[in-house]
Amino acid sequence: MTSTSAGILRLSDRRPDVSGAEMLAALVPPPQFDSATFDSYRADPQYPSQQESKDLLETFAGGGAPVARGGFFRRAKKAPETKPGVYLDGGFGVGKTHLLAAIYHAMPARRKYFGSFIEYTALVGAVGYQNTVQLLRGADLICIDEFELDDPGDTMVMTRLLGELVTSGTRLAATSNTPPNALGEGRFAAQDFLREIHAMAASFETIRIDGTDYRQRAVDGHAIVLDAETYRGEIDAASRTGAVSDDAFADVVTHLASVHPSRYIRLIDGVEVIGLREVAQLTDQSAALRFVAFIDRAYDAQIPIRATGRALDEVFGDDMLAGGYRKKYLRAISRLVALTHS
Question: d(Cα 94, Cα 99) in Å, to the nearest integer?
Fold first, then answer.
């Protein structure tokens, strides 16, 4: 990330660009997971699958207890076969990304990469498929957060890419969203994920993680809405010590359509607080999905949001919440609530 001077800027004025080399170098866990470990993962005792998943993943990463060796007259027990990939199946907010980052940090690998699905597909778009294969070939570990199952073309490209990498010895760890029409809030994500990557399904071991959204355990259930005067005071105060964005909500939504989602992270590069004036409910599905992708990047960077107008947890209408992208919108709402409280 580049440094940005203190003051107020407009996200809608930014025209970010990024090279393939920069994209590859950026394939590391988000700042909030810089120090994520298995020890720092707090398993909820009400959901035993969380502790069980943590133990299984720690073994996958090479940090679990070694298999007991046989005595002089005993044959040593054969270690169970470990598949090259693990898929973390569960609803949002149960700690899948934390555990994915813990795998990344724990695995003693010379070359390893961590990114969202959109970051890997953006890399393919920037440098081409074969060049991406060459850049990633030889990596010990590839972590893919929120493997997208919505676009058949992107899914096919990623499946093919991962298939080539696995044959060269790369290990994989992934989480995914729920595809359209799978309304089980993660319950059916595993079977859909494995079906979509059918050519590689045998390479993945599915690990189910149950639980409730940890963000909703820590904050009130609604996004904070500021009046115009309070908003202006908070934006002005924050701008004295750091870079703060101040845009009309409609301008940001419109601007997102002109920027590739892989570059959203650069829109907020160096920004310490995001200001959104006159928030209104979204009516266009494409605009809503772009806003979800933008909020994912803001949440990864842990940038607080200050807003006026409609509460950000009401930005997606009932029709959207009842549709095939329900899980994406609910995850975004959870993150929006957390960011307005931060």
Answer: 10
Query: Residue holding tokens 């394939």?
Result: 27
pLDDT at 148: 77
DSSP character at residue 45: T
The CA distance from 184 to 169, in Å, is 34
Integer CA distances (angstroms), 312 to 193, 235, 250, in order? 30, 17, 13
75/70 Cα distance (integer angstroms): 5
Interatomic CA distance for residues 42 and 48, integer angstroms:
12
At residue 167, the 3 state secondary structure works out as: helix
Pull the structure tokens for residue 170.
């790369």
Q: What is the pTM of this model?
A: 0.72
The amino acid that residue 105 corresponds to is H
pLDDT at 19: 77
**Beta strand 171-176 pairing with 85-90:** parallel
Does the pLDDT value for residue 308 go beyond 90? yes
